[in-house]
Amino acid sequence: MKLLYFHLMTIDIKQLINHVISASELELLPRFNQVKRDYKADGSIVTKADLAMQNSLHKALQQAYPDIELLGEEMSAKQQHDLLASGKPLWCLDPVDGTSNFAAGVPYFSVSLALIMDGQVTLGLVYDPIRQECFYAQRGQGAWLNDQKLSPHNVGLNLKQSIALIDFKRLTPQLSTQLITDVPYASQRNFGSIALELSWIAAGRSHIYLHGKQQLWDYAAALLILDEAGGYSCTLAGKPVSDNQLTPKSTVAALDKKLFTDWCQYLDVPSFSDNL
Q1: Model confidence over 242-276: pLDDT tens digits?
Q2: Which of 33, 174, 226, 248 could pair with 202 in a Cys bridge, judged by C-beta atoms 3.0 to 4.6 Å apart?
Q3: Are 223 and 94 within one domain?
């Protein structure tokens, strides 16, 4: 126990960033738009880059922190479940968030790495290899974009003036229809990397966010970054998104408190005030 405690207290965030950057330069960038796509049982895309990136980071993290195991997206569901059920500290990794973009040559994808301890994400890192931007946070210590601290701020816009990041594919037909026929925002985008989009919300690059079905490795790191930047989030049911479970979650989010309130009211999110 003392050895484990020592390792957890001596995690060097800069060293962690260097591991992710090195693996990205070795395994991702040379394969960008140069890989064949395969399909998993759920229809999602996987490439050799996903597997190579996960293996590379697993080795680096195992060497640096041998007492912390890795839960990766490219593992079997049973392996993932067993790791979470163990209650041990875990790295939670999405080696390429935005694989469809990566395989198609669209320069918008990221690497997402979180540390889960005692059922809580305590560290999160999202790296954009194309722009060489690293978003990161440690619980209670704030959030950063490279060397710039991310801070809460009122953008001074109402809901009708906001830019929304929305993935329509995973919303109900009823909600999608409502958003199209009763447009509550100025404009809408969907870039295709959950972790990076949430990090952009944390950095104020868009204003409101909605996704109907995210996995733990998609949001674990980025939601900590958003939270430490002063942002807000909940599910469409008004519950906390992060609960250290493998069940997919919807996510409603914003950096600005008033925009979050208005966005939740429009979406009819129950008990959204509990998340303020």
Answers
A1: 887 888 999 999 999 999 999 999 999 987 555 55
A2: 226
A3: no
- Looking at the fold, whether 258 and 166 belong to one and the same domain comes out as yes
Task: Label the pairing between strands 249-254 and 208-214.
Answer: antiparallel
Distance, CA of 92 to CA of 86 (rounded, Å): 14
- Residue 146 and residue 163 share a domain: no
Between strands 163-166 and 187-189, the pairing is parallel
Which residue(s) pair with 116 in the sheet?
90, 121
Give me the domain span that covers residue 197.
159-268
Instruction: Write down the pTM of the prediction.
Output: 0.91
Summarised one tens digit per residue, pLDDT across range 95-113 is: 999 998 998 999 999 999 9
- Counted residue by residue, the chain has a size of 276
d(CA 135, CA 105): 22
Query: And the tokens for 267?
Result: 């979406």
